[in-house]
Amino acid sequence: MPKKVDHEARRREISEALWRIASTRGLEGASLRDVAAEAGMSLGRLQHYFRTKDEMLLFALRYIESLAQQRIRESIEALGREPTPRDIVRACLVGMLPLDEQSRTGFLVGVAHFHRAVHDPALRTGAQEGIPALRGLFADQLRKAMEQGEVRAERDADDEAMVLICLADGLSTYILLDVHTPEKAVQLLDMHLSQLFDGAGAR
């Protein structure tokens, strides 16, 4: 068991080295050798943990996603009350935006993985797998909100869930390009949520 823990710790250290490269100069031209140098180890040692760049990217992406999920849980717990469907949806969406250094780096790692997945059918299949689960999470919360009269019943929960995912992706891109500040992006997100959670009796 100790050996396994140490193995995972080394993989996380390599992932953190990859994040540093992502946040400073991008991953487009970064090689396994570059990441090994950033992590302070030989290429051969790095390849003991990751055989390919795609394998390393995927682990780094899942690791940083787990940290994002932890932040989302903590933000919901910080409410100090039973969260409403809107609370849960908003916390998830805000957690998807690159609002600080860690979440910005996570988004950049995701972009690097996305770029490779576009040209690799196997990677593309893997990248697609998380979307239905996220859409399902949002759609379930929207259905609860419909039952509670917070969202109009005639809305399609699955379609609205996909719109939310697309909104977060678009706002994230514009934050990185300095089209919007993080604060403006959150404001636009809240504006859309106000229109969505407008109540069953709204026009």
TrEMBL record:
Residues 8-68 form the HTH tetR-type domain. It holds the Pfam family TetR_C_6. Residues 31-50 bind DNA. PROSITE patterns: HTH_TETR_2. InterPro entries: BetI_C, Homeodomain-like_sf, HTH_TetR, Tet_transcr_reg_TetR-rel_C_sf. Keywords: DNA-binding, Repressor, Transcription, Transcription regulation. This is Transcriptional regulator BetI. It comes from Streptomyces rimosus subsp. rimosus. The lineage of its organism: Bacteria, Bacillati, Actinomycetota, Actinomycetes, Kitasatosporales.
